[in-house]
Design goal:
It is found in: Membrane. May play a role in cell differentiation in the intestinal epithelium. This is Proteolipid protein 2. It is a multi-pass membrane protein. The longest helix is centred in the C-terminal third of the chain and has 26 residues. This protein has 7 helices and no strands. The chain has one domain. It is mainly α.
Length: 137
């Protein structure tokens, strides 16, 4: 038997999540999570002292992915989520840029150089995400 209350309540949680994942913001968050994971793997092989940035940023990106995909940002109104997301991406872009320049100047091994290059790419992704999510645009 079908539950008529469930059908009339609106879209299911799974439909809401999958609808968000196909938006531009959802794709950007997925890209941020994946590139932070790859950078973490490269840094943990060769230079674990730099891996904390990618771990922290991956955790925060997963938090924002869950927040947006479950529509919690509309239910929790205490925080201004667009500004939080803008500052998260802007600060991450600056930190990845600084870390990548430091790593590439040190001239480490191959995985460190790859992580530095990917950090520059991640910085570009975060800058683009910051420009897309700027609240006053």
């Amino acid at each position: 038997m079908m539950d008529s209350r469930r059908d009339s309540a609106g879209p299911s949680c799974w439909a809401t999540c999958t609808n968000f994942w196909s938006t531009q913001k959802g794709i950007l968050l997925f890209a941020e999570i994946i590139i932070c994971l790859v950078i973490l793997i490269c840094f943990s092989i060769s230079a674990p002292k730099y891996s904390s940035l990618s771990v922290g940023e991956e955790i925060v990106a997963v938090f924002f992915l869950v927040l947006y995909s479950c529509n919690l940002h509309t239910k929790i109104t205490i925080v201004n989520w667009p500004w939080c997301d803008f500052f998260r991406t802007f600060i991450a872009a600056i930190l990845f840029l600084i870390t990548s320049i430091i790593v590439l100047v040190e001239k480490g091994n191959l995985s460190t150089n790859i992580a530095g290059l990917l950090g520059l790419i991640a910085s570009g992704i975060f800058i683009y995400d910051a420009s897309v999510t700027f609240p006053l645009r």
